[in-house]
Amino acid sequence: MKDIELLSPAGNFEKLKIALAYGADAVYAGVSHFSLRIRSGKEFTYESFEEAIKYTHERGKHLHATINGFPFNAQIPLLEKHIERVAAMNPDAFIVAAPGVIKLARKIAPHIPIHLSTQANVLNYLDAEVYADMGVKRIIAAREVSLKDLEQIKKHLPHLELEVFVHGSMCFAYSGRCLISSVQSGRVSNRGSCANDCRFPYTLYAHNEESGTLFRIEESEEGTHIMNAKDLNLSAHVKEILDSGVIDSLKIEGRTKSPYYVGITTKTYRQAIEDYFANQFVAEKYMKELDSTKNRGFSDGYLVNRPYEKNDTQNLAHSISEGTHQVVAQVSEDGTNCLCKDVLKLHVSYELVMPSSAVGVCVDNEIGTIFEEHGAWKILFKKLQTANGKQFDEIHSGNIHAIMLPIPVAGFSFLRLQLKDQE
Q1: How far apart are CA 341 and CA 399, in angstroms?
Q2: Same structural domain, 251 and 330
Q3: Whether residue 49 is found in the same domain as residue 154
Q4: Which has more pLDDT, 40 or 135?
């Protein structure tokens, strides 16, 4: 039975802990220097990043360090120092996009495996072989590549590991090679500071050069988000992917997304993988759970369909939409209390979403009730009370008071409410 790695995003230390708790085999993260997610990279200092690697290794899991930006000449001395410093922390791999950086990393830290970023756009076995000859251990396939093409790459290079994105944001540009953000706001996408300009609404005009007349093209019912790609969701195709026998790692995008997103996507794809090996795969179940996260509408991308075979990959109406559920609170790491993320009220049943290995326990005391209903765990507060005894009628997002739970539950659990239940 082939081992399949589930690789989740770790935008900061808390999200790293959540990803591991919810079933990830590995996480990817980076310090801001030379990472394609500068905003999330700023969440890590060198000191906290080293601590995160130790935390991950103590749990028998892996951490892949992102060094996947495209450096300018002036940055190369700093890049050398960066590689040296991160290599000393012993991450399990470097994720690299530029050939020159691969060569530099192999020279400075030959003991750290190289994983080739999706930014390198590998679509065929010829390109894959070039990178393999350079010492690359794993190819993170371009978003545009098909499963059949990956089978061909594996056939020609059986010892080369293959990783594919299965969930998360999709870029309007070819594998993220975009200049829109650079032109409009001076934020360079290929160096990690994309402003997501493709998500904005745009008004279209037609200009007559002879007369100088400028006509505004009226907005249709579809809206004006003309470059807004839907989010990738391949949960329904996990069986097909694993049946191929050529994929080594399933990757979830989202280092800048919420802790809830990290937890739910990781738990759902972990369940899909486990169900596959238990011959209990049910695609509808995973789709329903992933619908609870905020998204731009879902697409199955190009892994199982060629780009010219479909025209439903853009969400023209809006940049992002609420999921089916609202996160109401997040449980602390020690599991004793929670912080409000929306509105917490007395005598309302909230669903309690726990990490993969957690086991629910029924309880009924003066603080509240935890019970199981229709296969889901629920929690109801009789008191909204802090550890020092202060009580509230209700709590709103932004309130810094930690609310006691009836009993300790699994750390990093979430309280959520189906949106229609709030009406």
Answers
A1: 9
A2: no
A3: yes
A4: 135
In a domain, 183, yes or no: no
- How far apart (Å, rounded) are the C-alpha atoms in residues 158 and 165? 20
Same domain, 277 and 414: no
Question: Do 51 and 97 have their domain in common?
Answer: yes
User: Which one of 236, 264, 299 terminates a domain?
Assistant: 299
Average of per-residue pLDDT across 216-242: 79
What predicted TM-score, i.e. pTM, was given to this entire model? 0.88
Question: What number of other Cβ atoms are within 10 A of residue 375's Cβ?
Answer: 5
CB 66 within 8 A of CB 31: no
Q: Give tens-digit pLDDT for 368-397.
A: 999 999 999 999 999 999 999 999 999 999
The pair of structure tokens assigned to 174 is 């070819």
Task: Give the C-alpha separation, 116 to 13, whole Å.
Answer: 24
The more confident residue out of 207 and 173 is 207
Q: Which residue has the tokens 């390198």?
A: 120
Tell whether 15 and 153 lie within a shared domain.
yes
Our count of domains for the chain comes to 2
The domain in which residue 46 lies consists of 5-172+227-299
Residues 398 and 252 in one domain: no
> CA quadruple 31, 33, 35, 40: dihedral positive or negative?
positive
CATH number of the structural domain spanning residue 254: 3.20.20.70
> Residue 40 — pLDDT band, cuts 50, 70, 90?
very low
| pLDDT single digits (tens) 238-295 | 999 999 999 999 999 999 899 999 999 999 999 999 999 999 999 999 999 999 999 8
- CATH code of 384's domain: 2.40.30
Residue 169 vs residue 247, higher pLDDT:
247
The tokens describing 121, both together, are 């756009």
Same domain, 268 and 380: no
Q: Is residue 219 part of a domain?
A: no
Percentage of the chain beyond pLDDT 90 is: 70
In a domain, 353, yes or no: yes
- Can you say how many angstroms the Cα of residue 319 is from the centroid of all Cα atoms in its chain? 17
